[in-house]
């Protein structure tokens, strides 16, 4: 049996509506003002509300706005009862969140029809909200699974830490680092185009493929060879329309040399602070199309020597493609300036970076995954 709440300060109309609706088999609750109506909503959780527009205290528009802006109550179908019939008044009602209107004097057949239609829409809205909640729960579980695959931070013989913040929709970020031998460390971060499980699954496939070294006789010490092998393996076709960007590097801790290659990925940022008054900055990126776009794509290696007191940041574009409250998208240059400003901080740099990005973001959640790797070589 559906629950219906009627809110009206006119007792005769309240009684009339209650009798009409009870004859149709509905369970009817009543309130004589807006404040009492809100209390009844929280107590009985009706499927539909019929509320008078003009009342002392909270009027119908204000009650409607309170109901419709509460996520837990927003699926309630809201009908405004009014003698106002101008277009401007109806627009005000719709802007407040009203789903329908009933004009005074009340006509019984119209009332019954509008209530039936409203309840059908309430059921649809409720079912859609339930499906949305289930989907969000599944995406949260998927994000937790991705997080469980990520490596643990390390402190010796160098320090690697990271922050991984999945977006609401779950993106395609994934990263890993592991020793190829006692002296050489492989590090990479990839970002699959799109969102949802369709983007996440290719990322997990790459992680498992590289972690298990399952690409035949591939030289994992040569980044350009690794990217070419991935490009040969993950080509776009009619069954798979996903491509991904990746930055892959191998660090030799004895020679203090880093060899790297990238495929359409943001540059890694190397900051060196041998002199505390002066921080040197290098942007580590090589030309190369994202993996999966073109079978004939070429990849080349870059080299750099790692100076004392150097820190390397590898990140996805979600770390800087952030829409601010003024509608302007933040930039890579601004993100690099943030890294520079924190370079001489001893501890908690990643937390400071993430807190800054969260304050900068104009929405409750990020539009894309935010992944940031921090490698301190000394």
Description:
With 378 residues, the chain is of the alpha/beta class. Helix content is 35%, strand content 26%. The chain contains nine helices and 15 strands. It has helices spanning 11-23, 34-44, 60-68, 87-96, 108-149, 197-211, 223-233, 332-341, 349-360; strands spanning 3-7, 27-31, 48-52, 77-82, 100-103, 159-165, 172-179, 184-192, 244-252, 257-263, 268-275, 278-284, 302-305, 310-315, 370-376. The strands form three sheets. The protein has a five-stranded parallel beta sheet with strand order 2-1-3-4-5, sandwiched between helices. The chain has a five-stranded antiparallel beta sheet with strand order 6-15-14-11-12, covered by helices on one side. A five-stranded antiparallel beta sheet has the order 7-8-9-10-13, covered by helices on one side. β7 and β8 (184-192) form a beta hairpin. α2 runs parallel beside α3 (60-68). The chain is elongated, with a radius of gyration of 29 Å. The chain starts with a strand and ends with a strand. The model has no long low-confidence stretch (mean pLDDT 90).
